[in-house]
Amino acid sequence: MGGRIIIADDLVTDRIALKARLAAARHSVTQARTRDELLARAIADKPDVILIDIDFPGGGIAACRALKARPDLAEVPVVIYGAADDRVARIAALEAGAEECLTDLPGEALLLALLRNLTRKRAEREELLRRQPLGAADAFAEASAGFAPRARITVVPPTATEGPGWRSRIAAASGAKVTLATSATALEPEAEGDAYVIALTPGNPGAALGLVAELRARPSTRHALVLLHTPRDRDDTADMAFDFGADAVMRGTFSSAELVARLDRLLDRKRETDRLRARVEDQLDEALRDPLTGLFNRRYADGYLARMQKEHGATRRSCAMLLLDLDHFKSVNDRFGHLAGDDVLVETARRLKATLREIDLVARIGGEEFLVVLRDTTGDEARLTAERLRAAVADTPVDARDGQTPISVTLSIGMALCSNSISNPRELWDQADRALYVSKAGGRNIVTCAPERSAA
What we know:
The protein is α/β, with parallel strands linked by helices. The protein has 3 domains: 4-140, Response regulator (Rossmann fold, 3-Layer(aba) Sandwich), CATH 3.40.50; 152-283, Rossmann fold; 286-449, Reverse transcriptase/Diguanylate cyclase domain (Alpha-Beta Plaits, 2-Layer Sandwich), CATH 3.30.70. Helix content is 46%, strand content 17%. Helix 4 links the parallel strand 4 and strand 5 (100-102). The longest helix is centred in the N-terminal third of the chain and has 28 residues, at 108-135. The chain is globular, with a radius of gyration of 24 Å.
């Protein structure tokens, strides 16, 4: 199911073109021709993203500023387009709160990739906000940001000779500590930064995209900002960067002023998101955590499902519930001892968590039973994820204590999909439990999906 998009443009030809480009992804599109109409639709529709023409009546930048000034709309990503080669206007749009400012009406590939990127980041942030009241009480109230430490920026320039110039210009404009690196050395611990600025060179675009993918895959850099620069105004490879995990793409002649305008907003949001993430991880008390594995427990899962039930009534976003059970776990305890059994549980939990996205839930709900909830996922994506979870446990034995023989374990998984309603999570749980029974009866170490239907 696509997102809810508002197109704010007084030219009917532009609105038609954008709507056609959004059709393939099945986004729900509404249109606005005046600022009053835009505000009214934004308040009523609660969109996932708003697209605004820079020449929108009253000014696209002014419209963005008005949206961001409202607490109920400030979190909605705004993309402004049509700035042409006016760098001053692009910087003004970013300073007004726009997540992106494009030179022209975006093509289909860029538009869809950008929307996927923005909606994914918003979903991750909303998930952190959703977990705040579940993990603590009044002590979780938003604290003042306080002093912001000096940012660390790692720069991968297009050539070694251009590196010192980039470093000095960025350092002077931002006040940050700037480190130069190559595609290879950027992955070294001493090059780790809060943000990475990577030049996409036309002769070797794969190196930049590969570096973005590596940064996103590594735990130490997974939450760092990644900004790509391409010297070309139109660059299909740069468009792909959003799907690889880039936070922004700067086009045309390198400008430290535009770079800093982008980084300032992104760094502010990153610091806030990091604080939210730290609260979730550090302040969840033992009542909501399994003390052995560190995963959430059944009590947390019940509260999570209850909250998700309320939200789903408004969003109707698809989800999947998985129940996972370690096969023949009693025999592991009997043969290797309970300490070894604990090691298996801890390692299983680690592998499950490493395989899932941040927006997904994984909880230990019983002795050797686990619950996984996949948010905003299709049936095919959920099946692939379930198979990856199964393989993550089955493919590699768990190292035993004291040099004993490694312990081979497997998982049986039952899965239920909910594409239209989750008004009754217990019914979805029952479907997944029945599917798990089928997996156990069918030989174990397999994934079974319950017949897809709405959990009314």
